[in-house]
Write a structure and sequence with these properties.
With 429 residues, this protein is an alpha/beta fold. The protein is 30% helix and 23% strand. The protein is built from 11 helices and 21 strands. The strands form 6 sheets. It has a 6-stranded mixed sheet with strand order 4-3-5-6-7-8, sandwiched between helices. A 4-stranded antiparallel sheet has the order 10-11-12-15. It has a 4-stranded mixed sheet with strand order 20-19-18-21, with helices on both faces. Strand 1 and strand 2 form a beta hairpin. The radius of gyration is 22 Å and the shape is globular.
Length: 429
């Protein structure tokens, strides 16, 4: 189920996207109150936007724009909305995304071809370890995509290692969809209960929400910690509610493949200018084929690098490299620029750490302060010294580390109001 356009030449893909872009601009001008007003305010003649390079003539869209003008982004009457999803906004209140019947079909198609990248085929059984409720788009997208692909789905939901293993041993799924750090809990449960995970049916895992690769595509510490024990393939996937599109790795593990019929990608610097080839910047996307709430030049907040060389799998599509970090989560600490994923990866290195939370605040001097709260199996000064030494060696700085109980950490990580575990808390003004 590989779309023909994904194996077309780079020039053919560009021509194809430019036609789709012109169709999108006409649609937005006729149906989106927000973009119609933007085009008028900026005196933009949409018919002059003919190439991908011409996108530079159009201002970017931010999360704040979505939050302040949520209703004006809708291009269809509300009675055509048949599913509602929400995502957190920069001002505190969630942003509502509505999907039409056509949008759900597009979402299913997106996930079907994304799962195909990772090798899932019709007839395979997949255990879905994410929530489908609480207005969460991802879980629904996975289910719809697997259904369209013709795969069997076991909807277990998140957490509860015992229940996950009961389903794995009973239904023998070939793939899992989960947060990768949870695989460590599955391994621990299996070892404590004499389950041989390496003789189980699992061959691969579609991993969400956490980094599996370094910038050179080598496995992250978290990935190595899993695969050193459990001999399975870990596929990284990157997506967001705003994009309604996923970038998933193929069997060569060199970045998430873009689907050119569904999304246009740009990587921009601090001045909203395209970065030079091979440089990192903020991923900015334009959705194609979305009916209810298409977005034009939306800044995702994620710092990434694009890779354009042909992949060994034969696809000529651009690939998105591992996320360096969230732009808004960038930390300046003692002259060093840091992103939370690098710190999370270092903490994964230590077997003695049961769980952790990184808190960022502003000190009396107005600069960033880092506090890492950890729960450990055995309290020892030696472990704390090792953690600090490791940070100093790898990141050139030593943050403050505080020991807390696992119960204290779990109250922060698993809050009832959040659909995802919270391991990064930003207390800066």
């Amino acid at each position: 189920m590989i779309p023909t356009i994904e194996k077309a030449t780079a020039a053919e893909i560009k021509d194809f996207q430019e036609v789709k872009l012109q169709e999108l601009l006409v649609y937005l001008n006729g149906n989106s109150p927000y973009y119609k007003a933007l085009f008028a305010k900026e005196s933009i003649d949409i018919h002059s936007i003919k190439t991908l390079e011409d996108l530079q003539k159009i201002p970017t869209t931010t999360k704040t724009d979505l939050q302040e003008n949520n209703d004006d982004f809708f291009c269809v009457p509300m009675h055509k909305i048949i599913d509602y999803a929400t995502t957190s906004g920069t001002l505190g209140d969630p942003v509502t995304f509505g999907l039409t019947d056509k949008d759900l079909d597009r979402l299913a198609y997106n996930e079907a071809i994304s799962f195909t990248c990772a090798g899932i085929k019709e007839g395979d059984v997949v255990q879905l370890m994410t929530t489908l409720d609480r207005r969460f788009m991802a879980g629904l997208a996975y289910f719809l995509g697997l259904r369209k692909l013709g795969a069997g789905v076991i909807r277990v939901g998140a957490g509860i290692p015992e229940l996950q293993w009961d389903s794995i041993l009973k239904y023998k799924p070939k793939y899992l969809v989960t947060v990768p750090s949870f695989l460590l809990k599955l391994i621990e449960y299996a070892e404590n209960n004499k389950i041989n995970y390496n003789t189980s049916s699992i061959e691969g895992v579609i991993c969400i929400g956490e980094a599996l690769r370094n910038q050179d595509f080598s496995p992250s510490l978290l990935a190595r910690k899993i695969t050193d024990k459990w001999k399975i393939n870990l596929f990284s996937t990157y997506a967001s509610t705003e994009m309604s599109t996923a970038f998933t790795e193929c069997e060569f593990f060199h970045g998430g493949h873009q689907h050119p019929e569904l999304i246009i990608t740009e990587v921009l610097d601090e001045n909203n200018q395209p970065v030079k080839e091979g440089e990192s910047g903020e991923l900015t996307i334009t959705t194609l084929g979305v009916e209810a709430m298409p977005l034009l030049r939306f800044k995702t907040g994620d710092i990434v690098k694009l890779h354009s060389e042909t992949c060994d799998c034969g696809r000529n599509t651009v690939r998105v490299g591992p996320v360096v970090g969230r732009k808004q989560h960038m930390i300046k600490y003692k002259g060093t620029t840091l992103y939370p994923p690098a710190m999370h990866d270092l903490l994964t290195y230590f077997e003695g750490i049961q769980s952790h939370v990184i808190e960022i605040s502003t000190n009396d001097l107005g600069t960033d302060e880092i506090l890492i709260k950890i729960a450990v199996k055995n309290n020892s000064k030696e472990l704390l010294d090792q953690i600090k030494d490791h940070f100093r060696a790898k990141l050139r700085v030593t943050p403050k580390v505080e020991l807390v109980t696992l119960d204290e950490l779990n109250k922060i990580i698993f809050t009832p109001m959040s659909r995802k575990p919270i391991i990064f808390v930003d207390k800066r003004a």
